[in-house]
Amino acid sequence: MTRFLTLLALVLTAALLARDVDAQGQYRTVASVDGDAVTAFEVDQRTRFLRLVRQPGANEAFALDQLIEDRLKLAAARRAGLELTEEGLQNGLVEFAGRANLELDEFLQVLRAQGIEETTLRDFVRVGLTWRELVRSRFGNRAQIGETEIDRAIGGAGGAGSSVRVLLNEIILPARPGRRNERAQAQREAQRLKNIRSISAFQAEARSKSVAQTRGRSGRLDWLSLAELPPSLTPILLGLSPGEVTEPIELENAILLFQLRDIEEIAVPAAAPAAIDYAALYLPGGRSDRTMNEAARIVERVDTCDDLYGIARDMPREALERGAKTPAEIPQDVAIELAKLDPGETSISLTRANGETLVLLMLCSRVAGLAESPDRDAIRNQLRSQRLAGFADGYLQELRAQAVISRP
User: What is the pTM of this model?
Assistant: First the structure.
C-alpha cells in the first residue's frame, strides 16, 4: 500500500508539473511593445477569432501583427486621455454580434464552442472603437471635404456628361509593417522617386525596383477611367501634370507611386460601378519563388472566378474570398488593382499577413451604376472616411517607427 501511494503521488505530481509547463508555454511572451508583453495565448485566441469571422489571410503571423498594433493604438489613446466606457464597450459588443444576426449571448456561445474566450472579443472591439475615436479627434479637422473636391469626384466618376481617364506609370515598393528597416528604406526610396519628372527615368526605376506585375512593362498601365479608381485618388490625379508623380501612397504592405503620362476627357460618361464582384485567393509563402510559381500555374488554369472554387477545394475555408462589394467597401489597394483588370484577368501584386500571404486577385464583373443625380452628402462622407483612413494608416506607421518592438 505504501508503494502504491508513493507511485500515485509521483503520477499526480508529474501531471501537475506537465499542466504547469503547458500553462507557462501558453503565457510565454512572443512579442513586446515598449515593454508590454504579447503572449502565445493571445495569439492563439486572436487567430481562432479571426478565422471564425472569416478574416482573409488569418494566421498566427497576421494575428501577432494585429496584437502588436493593438498595443500601439491603446497606448496612443491613453496618452491622449481617451478611455472607452463600459457602456460604450457593451454597445459595441452588441453591434458586433448583430453583424452576424445574433444576440450577444448567442454570439458568445458560438465563441465558447470554438474555444474562444469572451475577453478576446472584448479586447478586439475595445481597440477598434478606441482607435476610431482617437483618429476622429486627432484628424477630424484635417479631414473636412470641400465642395470643389466633391465636384471633382463627381466629374471624375462620369458626372456632368463627360468622363476623365488617365494614362499612368506605377511603382510598388514592398514595405511590410513588421519589418521596420524595409518600410523605412521604402519610404526613403519613395521620397526620392516622387521628385522624378522624366517619364523614361520613372519607367527605368519601375523596371528595377517595382514589385508590381507591370514591372516587365516599365510600370506602364493602360488607360484607366477615374470612375473605376478609389474616389480618394481623383483629386490627387487631377492635380498632376504629365510627368509629375503622386505623393507616396501608403498601403498595408507596400508604398505606391503613380506618374501621370497623359489625361483626357471623353464625351461618353463612364458610370461608376454600383458593385464590383471579385475573388481573392490567399496563398501562403508571400512573394517567395515557390508561391509565385504556384500562382502563375493557377493563373494558367483559370478563366473565370468560378474556376477558383476548384483550385481552393482542398485549402482552408478562409483561403478563398468571393463576393460583390460596393466601391466604398473595398480596401484601397485592392480597388486600385481591380481598376487595372478586365473581367477574368488576375493580379498577384498584393500581399497580406505582413507579406507572408500572396493575394491572387481576380475581377469577376462590374455591376454598372444607375444614371442618377449624385448624392453629395454620401460622396462627402465617403471621401472623408477615406481621408481619415489615410491619416490613420500614416499615424499607425509613425507609432510603429517610434516604438520598441521585440520578438524573442
Answer: 0.51
